[in-house]
Request: fold
Amino acid sequence: MFNTKTNLYDEIFQHNNNNKVDCILVDESQFLTKDQVYQLSEVVDKQAIPVLCYGIRTDFLGELFEGSHYLLAWADRLIEIKTICSCGKKANRLVRLDQNGKVVKQGEQVEISDMDRYESLCRKHYKIKFNG
Reply:
């Protein structure tokens, strides 16, 4: 577990001194800060520990998360795990839905809620739902 103030390089370095670390897996990596993405790159470069990050690129408004922005810029390798839109095309967008199933068009970038409040869509259907 970590938060925006956690120095990931130091945490991993200390843990690796006590117990050998073979690999670091980071879920929800879109929530990393710019500094934390850099710290993870230092783990790879200086500690020779592979780091795998999993997360989404953009929020419900189509804006990059900070962590995603710097992972896209600095990652050695990107592998996309595909999600499918209801039309069968690759889903690469996300809409947030309110309690009535209507698309939310404003609000905080991060909102902890049920996953059924989000819908994965292709670009075409994102535009239709978001602008319609």
Summary: The first strand starts at residue 24 and ends at 26. The two ends are 39 Å apart (CA to CA). The mean pLDDT is 92.
